[in-house]
Amino acid sequence: MPDDIRREIERLRGEIQRHEYLYYVLDRPEISDQDFDQFVRRLQALEKEHPELVTPDSPTQRVGGKPREGFIKVPHSSPMLSLDNALTEEELREFDRRVRSLLGGEPYAYVAELKLDGLSMAARYESGLLVRGITRGDGLVGEDVTENGRTIRSLPLRLRQEHGDIEVRGEVVMHRKAFERLNVEREAQGLPRYANPRNSAAGSLRVLDPSITASRQLSFYAYGLFRDGAPLLESHWDSLDRLEKIGFKVNPYRKLCPALEDLLAFFREWEDKRETLPYEIDGVVAKVDSIPQQRALGWTAKAPRWAIAAKYTPRQAETTVEDIGVQVGRTGTLTPVARLAPVVVGGVTVSRATLHNEDEIERLGVQIGDTVVVERSGDVIPKVVRVARQGERRRPFGMPKQCPVCGGEVVREAGEVASRCINTNCPARLKESVRHFAQRGVMDIDGLGDALVDQLVERKLVTNVADLYRLKVEDLIELERMAEKSAGKVMANIGASRTRPLPRVLAGLGIPFVGERTAAILAETFGSLDEIAAADMETLQTAEEVGPKVAHSVNAFFREPRNQELVERLRKEGLQFQHQRKRKKSGPLEGRTLVLTGTLPTLARAEATKLIEEAGGKVTGSVSKKTDYLVAGEEAGSKLEKAQSLGVKVIDEAGLRKLLGG
Ligand code: IVH
Q: For residue 467, how far is the Cα from the chain centroid?
């Protein structure tokens, strides 16, 4: 029997690896997401029954590394240098003249690639297994980000072909979609937005907790194959093909260019087409294809002589700020928005740009009447980069003291960047909260568009989101541009939203700092809306990633009588208040909460967590009165003191094993 199971596990891993390759690397899935999940669940179940058969390269083992205290420095096998830039076509021609003359008349070709805007990383493989991921650092010494790198799905944990010990270098990027999703989430949590996908990719790779990297959906595109610090093959073009064969995602937009003109054509081709890519590029890289020729050309102190980065100029334009207005958001936040004299930036007319908040206006030093530089990159919202010239009759923007929509009081709390309208009945806030509730990814109510929401709120048909469930087709047909058929559809969609699971309902309530992810964690930890509503600050913080700020916000929300009333009405409307937990929890630690601290003699933190969860227990990040046990290893710090002061039982690894029943 065990042999059968071993074979089944091997088979599933092979299948999963193949489908991950098809999906993440080749972008050519052969099966549905559901079928894929089926494979993974089956493998997880078998590995759970047979933990002795789990291997580090199993597709189930991408996330599992423990949070770290800091990053270890690792020297590079050979310097990871940067590239010289060519800012004009003339500079590109000049580069080519130099290559030609240094090669003394030999024929040569270039490989043209896109210059992805992310950060570079080296990935080392030993006997076909990923053993280390290292950031570029200062080019000579980087940081060990192995656990974080493992969470990147396009980075293989195991090569498709055994290849001796190799190092693969490439670019870690965040796709535009993932970037926007992340910023929406961060705003909901009151965190500052990331400025661009590159910063956010860098920030996501260099976090101490790998589960955060995993949630950020980074991609890795390979562009270099090395052994002992030197290229493995004699042609760069062949290396890219080889990389693809052994399991890496290599950017498909590459071209072998026998002449400079081919290179220029490639550069021009992508100048416009780059807007259509799902990620950002800031230029094109040209590399001499032949590695012997690369060696002959050599390096300067900073960069290779055999390669160049031909950069695109960012899509910017100058225009004047005609006015600065404010928009009122769902939580009452007043966002200053610049009204601009319309200007074409990269083919699109721009007439508005967000200024985010008062601090940003101060940082830019912008006033009404100034001429500013606006920039558009991809489909990211246009932004004001800097003031080009101050206007003659410029005047400063002042945050209104009263809400421009309802006239309510506007306050800016100490320590917050945002000014808010504090009137919870403000129609602008109400409209935004209904939009938020209905949006995709939350309650998913198709057809409840902006114009409809405006009318529903203005006619007082909807005074909170629970009213949506009381609407009748007759109410809707009264409204502008509403035929009976579409009214019927909207009604059906509203009705269907009653079945959305608890995390959606929770996210839909619009509690400040509770976005989709936090909502999912809260639902998973507490199991029902009533448990969450009843939890005190301390209990809330036993949930992963929930700190004092989020806990306070959740607690304050459910103590507010208006919100309690809303919750009761939603309950009566039959929304989902119970959560179907992912894991069935039963075993010797059922209902127990444990905290881990310090280094245990034999168990890594992830392993200990897994064992505890399999025994029905829960592992949280901080010690509170509700903690049943603190499992302390060597160099336990403040958590140990806190446990002792609260009288929480402290045990060691042996004690834990005893609890686990063996
Ligand atoms: S080759 C010595 N190829 O651009 C050559 N780099 O300024 C090393 N980059 O640090 C780099 N796309 O982060 C190469 N297709 C590509 C690239 C690329 C983006 C980045 C990389 C590097 C920087 C060089």
A: 34
pLDDT at 63 over 80: no
Is the C-beta atom of 116 inside 6 A of ligand 1?
yes
State the pLDDT at residue 378. Answer: 54
How far is ligand 1, taken at its centre, from the CA of residue 149, in Å?
Answer: 18
Residue 247 C-alpha to ligand 1 middle, in angstroms?
20
User: The pTM is what?
Assistant: 0.62
Ligand 1: nearest atom to the Cα of 114: 15
Distance of CA 226 from the midpoint of ligand 1 (Å): 15
Confidence band, pLDDT 50/70/90 cuts, at residue 37: confident
Q: What are 175's two structure tokens?
A: 């796709």
The response to whether residue 171 sits with its C-beta less than 6 Å from ligand 1 reads: yes
Average pLDDT, the chain: 90
Label the pairing between strands 348-354 and 315-328.
Answer: unpaired
**Quick one: CA torsion of 300, 236, 162, 247, rounded to 10 degrees?**
110
Would the CB of 82 count as within 6 Å of ligand 1? yes
**Cα 413 to Cα 291: distance, rounded to the nearest angstrom:** 60
Nearest-CA residue for ligand 1 atom 16 is 115
Give me the mean pLDDT over the 420-425 stretch. Answer: 85
Q: Which of 95, 140, 223 to mutate to test the pocket of ligand 1 (most atoms within 8 A of CB)?
A: 223
Collapse the DSSP code of 259 into the 3-class scheme (helix H, G, I; strand E, B; otherwise coil) and give the result.
coil
Catalytically active residues are 115
CB 632 within 8 A of CB 650: yes
Take atom 1 of ligand 1 and give the residue whose Cα is closest: 223
Domains contained in the chain, CATH given: 3-61 (1.10.287.610), 85-311 (3.30.470.30), 315-389 (2.40.50.140), 400-582 (1.10.150.20), 593-659 (3.40.50.10190)
Residue 585 to residue 591: CA distance in whole angstroms: 8
Q: What six digits make up the tokens of 470?
A: 């009381």
What is the Cα–Cα distance from 118 to 174, expressed in whole angstroms? 7
